[in-house]
Design brief:
The complex is a heterodimer of chains A (131) and B (315). Chain A has a single domain, classed as HprK N-terminal domain-like (Udp-n-acetylmuramoylalanyl-d-glutamate--2,6- Diaminopimelate Ligase, Chain: A, domain 1, 3-Layer(aba) Sandwich). Chain A has six helices and five strands, in the order αββαβαβαβαα. Chain A has a five-stranded mixed β-sheet with strand order 1-5-4-3-2, sandwiched between helices. The radius of gyration of chain B is 24 Å and the shape is elongated. In chain B, the strands form three sheets. A six-stranded antiparallel β-sheet of chain B has the order 7-8-9-10-12-11. Chain B has 315 residues and is of the alpha+beta class. The chains are: A alpha/beta (131), B alpha+beta (315). The interface between A and B is medium-sized, with 27 and 29 residues.
C-alpha cells in the first residue's frame, strides 16, 4: 500500500518534509513499547505508535520500518521530526485511536504480522496441558 | 528466506580484494637499509620514518628484510653493534605489484609477517605493503572515511568511532554516555551505516542493528557509561557491550521477557518493558551475558554472516 493511500484511509496528515507518497508499505504494526516494535517489525512495515520522542525514529531506523504514523492526534516534538528528516523516514499523523487507525488500514488490506514470535514458545509452555 | 547453505555471501570487502591490485594498496616510498649498517643505525631508520621494518638492499638488489622484532631481540641481547646482515632474514618472501590484493591477504594470514616487499615482474623493488595499508585502501574505496568523517561527526556529540586493523578484522568502537537519551542510538546508527557500506546482507544488518540498539539503550539506562565494540570478520560480526555500573544480580531473571527494573522515566521513553535482553537473544546466534554487581556488565553478541539465524526468520 502506498503512503498516499494510507493517508486517505486514516484521513491523516504528513508531518515531515520531502515525503515521497509513492513509498510502499508492505505491512503494518502498532505499539507504544519500542522493544516490542524492535521484536516484531519487519522491513517496509508501517509503524503506528502513540509515543513521540526521537527514539521512535531510532527504532524505525534500526528495524527498517518504512514510515511512522503517530496516532491519537499526537504531534511529535521538533527534535523527532528533525531526526526523521535526517534519516529519511516519513512521519504521518492520525487523529484516530491506535485501534481505529490500525483497524482502518487492516480493513483496507494492509497485512499484519500475526503471532509475536518472541513469546510464542513461552505461551505454548504456559498453556500446554491446560486445554 | 533461507539461503542455500553452500552459497556464501561475498561481501563488498571480499570483492574488493579481487578487484584491487597490490600496487593499489602498497606504499611506494620504501625506506631501506644496507646490510653493513649496524642495528643501532637501523633503529634510527625506524624511528626517523615511523616505520616497523625495511627491506635490506645491497648493490641495488634486495638481500633480506629486517623488522622491529629483530631490533628488539638485539636490544634485549645488548647487541646493537651487530650488523643488519647478521640479524636480517635473507631471501624475503615477496609479492608482485600486479597480483590481486587477495593474494597479499592470504600471505599475511598464512605467514603472519608484518610486511611484504613488493616487486615488479622484472624483480625490482617497487613498494612495501602492510595489513594496515590494505585495510586503509579498502575502506577508502568503500568511502568509509572513518578518521575524517565519522570521528569528526561523533566528536561533536561525545561519541567517537575508531577503527583499527587487526589481521583482516575491522573493529569499530563507540562510547556510550549514561542517562543521555537524546543521543541514545547514535552508536547503533553509525554501526548500521558502516555495515551497509561494507556490503553486509540487509537481514544481517537488521539483526545487528536491533541487538546493538537494545544493548546501547541498556548502557544508557542502567550503567555509568560504557562502550560498544563491533568486530567485523568475513565470517561473523561480534558485538561487545561493556559498561561500568550497578550490574545485573540475577541474569536468568533478567532474561525473562517482561521482567524489568526500569524507572518511570525510561518507561516514558518507550523502553523498560523487559523485552530488551530477549530481543537481543532472538537476534543473536550466540549471546553471552556476564555481570558483576557493583562493577558492570559485559554482553557479547555473535551473528554469523554465512547462515540464517535459528532464532529469528530473516527479513
Amino acid at each position: 500500500m502506498k503512503l498516499s493511500e494510507v493517508l486517505q484511509v486514516i484521513e491523516g496528515k504528513v508531518i515531515s518534509k520531502d515525503v515521497d507518497l509513492e513509498t510502499e508499505v508492505t505491512s503494518g504494526g502498532g505499539a507504544d513499547l519500542m522493544s516490542d516494535v524492535l521484536a516484531f517489525a519487519q522491513d517496509d512495515m508501517l509503524l503506528m505508535t502513540g509515543l513521540t520522542n526521537p527514539q521512535v525514529v531510532r527504532t524505525a531506523e534500526m528495524a527498517g520500518t518504512a514510515a511512522v504514523v503517530f496516532v491519537r492526534g499526537k504531534i511529535p516534538p521538533p527534535e523527532t521530526v528533525a531526526l526523521a528528516e535526517q534519516k529519511g523516514i516519513p512521519l504521518l499523523a492520525s487523529r484516530y485511536t491506535m485501534f481505529e487507525t490500525c483497524g482502518r488500514l487492516f480493513k483496507a488490506g494492509l497485512p499484519a504480522h500475526g503471532l509475536f514470535e518472541l513469546t510464542v514458545r513461552r505461551w505454548h509452555d504456559s498453556f500446554e496441558g491446560t486445554e | 528466506m533461507d539461503l542455500p547453505s553452500d552459497k556464501k555471501e561475498i561481501t563488498k570487502l571480499q570483492e574488493l580484494t579481487y578487484e584491487l591490485k597490490i600496487e593499489d594498496a602498497m606504499s611506494r616510498n620504501v625506506f631501506t637499509v644496507s646490510p653493513d649498517a649496524s642495528m643501532a643505525d637501523f633503529r634510527e631508520v625506524l624511528r626517523a620514518n615511523r616505520i616497523s621494518g625495511t627491506p635490506v638492499m645491497e648493490d641495488g638488489k634486495m638481500v633480506g628484510i629486517v623488522s622491529i622484532e629483530d631490533l628488539i631481540k638485539s636490544l634485549a641481547a645488548g647487541q646493537l653493534q651487530l650488523t643488519v646482515r647478521e640479524r636480517m632474514h635473507p631471501k624475503p618472501v615477496t609479492l608482485y605489484a600486479d597480483e590481486p590484493l587477495v593474494h597479499a591477504v592470504a600471505r599475511f594470514s598464512e605467514l603472519r609477517f608484518g610486511r611484504f616487499p613488493v616487486i615488479n615482474r622484472a624483480g625490482e623493488l617497487v613498494g612495501i605493503v602492510t595489513q594496515g595499508d590494505i585495510v586503509r585502501t579498502m575502506l577508502k574505496r568503500l568511502e568509509i572515511s572513518y578518521r575524517a568523517e565519522e570521528i569528526h561527526r561523533y566528536r561533536a556529540s561525545h561519541i567517537f568511532e575508531d577503527i583499527i586493523a587487526d589481521e583482516m578484522a575491522l573493529v569499530f568502537g563507540y562510547r556510550v554516555k549514561p542517562r543521555d537519551f537524546g543521543h541514545a542510538g547514535e552508536a547503533s546508527s553509525g554501526l548500521k551505516r558502516t555495515l551497509g557500506r561494507l556490503g553486509i546482507h540487509p537481514s544481517i544488518i537488521r539483526r545487528v542493528a536491533v541487538a546493538t540498539y537494545e544493548a546501547e539503550i541498556n548502557i544508557v539506562v542502567y550503567s555509568d557509561g560504557g562502550e560498544i565494540v563491533a568486530e567485523v570478520r568475513p565470517d561473523r560480526i561480534k558485538i561487545e557491550a561493556l559498561d561500568k555500573g550497578q550490574g545485573i544480580p540475577d541474569i536468568e531473571q533478567a532474561m525473562q521477557p517482561g521482567w524489568s527494573t526500569a524507572p518511570d522515566w525510561v518507561r516514558e521513553m518507550g523502553f523498560g518493558a523487559g523485552m530488551g535482553l530477549p530481543n537481543i537473544k532472538s537476534c543473536a546466534d550466540v549471546m553471552k551475558l556476564e555481570s558483576t554487581v557493583g562493577v558492570g556488565t559485559h554482553l557479547t553478541i555473535i551473528i554469523y554472516l554465512d547462515r540464517v539465524s535459528p532464532g529469528r526468520s530473516a527479513g
